[in-house]
Design brief:
By secondary structure, this protein is mainly β. The chain has a single domain, classed as Sandwich (Jelly Rolls), CATH 2.60.120. The protein is built from 1 helix and 10 strands.
Length: 119
């Protein structure tokens, strides 16, 4: 584990590298469809995996969010409008806005980033 100096913590240890493939494998073996691997006051990041027909049950968040589609297809509903989802696309969702993925015919893998903690 690497050590870095933070304005609020002296010699605070923090993991600096993350294996998303491992998290994806763990998600597939669990009842969850997402895993947040960074959750700090100013930033959260994680991975979401939805199989075809699986429901995305998330609710609006307290922070702005960015999604990066790693692989898959389907749609992302943001504030009652449907956006087609495909590999390499990035989506922004403002805090407190209803949104969820749906309609994927292939496995959908998405990285997500919050401008604050995952709530």
């Amino acid at each position: 584990m690497l050590i870095f100096k933070d304005r609020n913590f002296e010699n605070f240890p923090m993991k600096l590298d993350f294996d998303t493939k491992q998290y994806i494998d763990e998600i597939k073996k669990s009842d969850n469809y997402f895993h947040t691997f960074i959750n700090r006051e100013t930033l959260a990041a994680g991975v979401l995996v939805l199989q075809p027909g699986e429901e995305d049950t998330q609710t609006p968040h307290d922070s702005d969010e960015v999604y990066y589609v790693v692989k898959g297809d389907g749609f992302l509903k943001i504030n009652k409008k449907d956006y087609p989802v495909s590999e390499g696309k990035v989506y922004f969702v403002q805090k407190d806005i209803e949104h969820y993925f749906f309609g994927n015919k292939k496995e959908l893998v998405v990285l997500y980033f919050f401008g604050g903690p995952d709530s």
